[in-house]
Design goal:
alpha+beta, Alpha-Beta Plaits, eight-stranded antiparallel sheet, 5 helices
């Protein structure tokens, strides 16, 4: 029996995981950010923004991400003028303000990621239950990015640790039916594993503050050999469904 891990699948037409997004310019990292995934879990659990429980949840969990499909990057050129009605009914801006805000926003198109989380078993269990009956809608980084399949995959104890899950968990992507033949499958998959000794830094650890500033997190970036699909029949079944 290995460690209890929460396994998630993050797939959708568009995803956006901001790392340096401030004010008008909204970027996206190459992989899901920890703050974004913890925010996703917080939405499922019913934690509002700036709730101190989000910071505790971030501290309790350790994250591993594997890129199943990197997708392509898109920049959407947006403009904002006049007033904007927010979700709670309040109004931002002023009717007589002639200013137009130019806001380029980055998205990942047709990307797919495997995310695995390690932490206290009771916390992982609560997250797994909430993902299957979420309090609020779940998005992939931004509200305009809904997932195309259930985010929750499983709560499992069959892996020794996060690194073992990154190495052995079967590859998956809803669009696998579009692959012409198995030879077009990737040979390796890129992984981002939260590791105190990691050489790369990500500014995506949640800190509860009005300025929405984040602390840094060390990650180890490395490739793993393609682990195979859960069974050869999966690709056949996917093709037959199209």
């Amino acid at each position: 029996m290995g460690k209890t891990l929460l396994i998630l699948r993050l797939e959708g037409p568009m995803q956006s995981w901001g790392l340096r997004s401030r004010w008008d310019v909204r970027d996206s990292g190459d992989e899901p950010s920890k703050s974004g995934i913890v925010g996703l879990l917080g939405a499922a659990l019913g934690y509002p923004r700036r709730d101190l429980r989000l910071e505790s949840l971030d501290a309790a969990l350790r994250l591993g991400v594997r890129v199943e499909r990197p997708g392509t990057r898109m920049v959407d050129f947006q403009t904002v003028s006049g007033v904007l009605v927010t979700a709670n009914g309040s109004v931002k801006g002023a009717y007589d303000d002639p200013t137009t805000i130019i806001s380029p926003r980055e998205y990942l198109q047709d990307a797919a990621f495997l995310a695995a989380m390690d932490g206290p078993a009771d916390v992982l269990r609560a997250c797994a239950d909430a993902l299957q009956r979420p309090k609020w809608p779940i998005f992939l980084g931004r509200k305009g990015c809904p997932p195309t399949k259930p985010v929750f995959e499983e709560l499992t104890g069959r892996y020794l640790d996060l690194a073992d899950a990154m190495r052995r968990h079967p590859w998956g992507w809803e669009g696998m039916s579009t692959l012409v033949d198995p030879s077009s499958l990737p040979r390796t998959l890129q992984c981002y594993l939260e590791d105190a000794d990691g050489k790369a830094l990500r500014p995506d650890r949640i800190q509860t503050n009005a300025a929405r500033m984040y602390s840094r997190r060390a990650v180890h970036i490395y490739p793993v050999p393609f682990p195979g699909v859960s069974s050869p029949q999966d690709m056949v079944d996917a093709k037959e469904e199209t």
